[in-house]
Amino acid sequence: MGRGKMPYRGTENARSGEGTLNPGAARPFPYRYKERLPENCRHPTEAQTRAAAHPLPRQHTMTLPPVAVAITDAIVSVRGVSKTYAGGFQALKNVHLDIRRGEIFALLGPNGAGKTTLISVICGMVNASVGTVTADGHDTVRDYRAARATIGLVPQELHTDSFETVWATVNFSRGLFGKAPNPAYIEKILKDLSLWDKKDNKIMALSGGMKRRVLIAKALSHEPKILFLDEPSAGVDVELRHDMWRMVRELREAGTTIILTTHYIEEAEDMADRIGVIRKGELIVVEEKATLMRQLGQKQLALTLQQPLATVPETLAQWPLTLSADGLTLTYSFDAQKDDTGIAELLAALGTEGIHFKDLRSSESSLEDIFVSLVHENKEVTA
Description:
30% of the residues lie in helices and 22% in strands. It is of the alpha/beta class.
């Protein structure tokens, strides 16, 4: 190899088949433009960066289903996406999903349900076996560079140079997308995430919580329109959690679309506009949070009795009643959407039976209750 020439990693070992770059294979996220730049382009302009990227022709061999009509304000559209790995495991099954511009969408599901796989397909880290995905109007396969430039991803784990400083790695992430340096913007991100005093520290010297903050800063460095947060609250302290959700609200107000997966369902209940529940690779429900809680939620009326009961009388069997272990609390579950909740008839029947209560209180199902009931119901149907 002549002096001054850099090896092209995709063709260096073409004869042996090692190192070849399959145009149909999933590329790392984001694509590392820096490795392609010639030596005389150490500080490239945005145009030079694009020219040095040498985009390869895309080859498609899979047959795609007809694309469904998307809603007009969708910034992410997933159409008929399935993913089957080489071992035969099907991680996603015919997923259709539209994510609206400017909303906070929470994707919930048990471990192994396919949440991370779906995010990886949308972000371009994993190729779908069948189906199409567009991000801000760009096909993630045919126009993958433009699509990925609109996306910021906060993964579950940190994969970065441990010997780089916080400032250097966040700036480097911005440069990978051809963005001009913007020290003021990077400073704002680091200050918002309480990382400013750590900006000159090496990554290897940070705590686990601080490394999580660096992940968020890297994802925001190129000012994406779409931000994916994959289990962002896992293993972080309360302070970071509050800082992170405050920033999420600010980003949403600025027009950024937020998609998050979380096991902290109370956070999704507090933050999300819409909820999607995925189980065994299938989306079993996608609904407005308020509508979901209104349609699937139930209310409970708890009556504190003056005298304990041994059992619920047979004359009260028509009402779904549960008796506490000490016999002092009688709980009635009812659908608040019905015209007749049955409460008046129940109270009259209690009086007829001589069962008197000294206190009553009502409560309603939380999002966690609804999530557990959906997953449990779907498990029974598929059993």
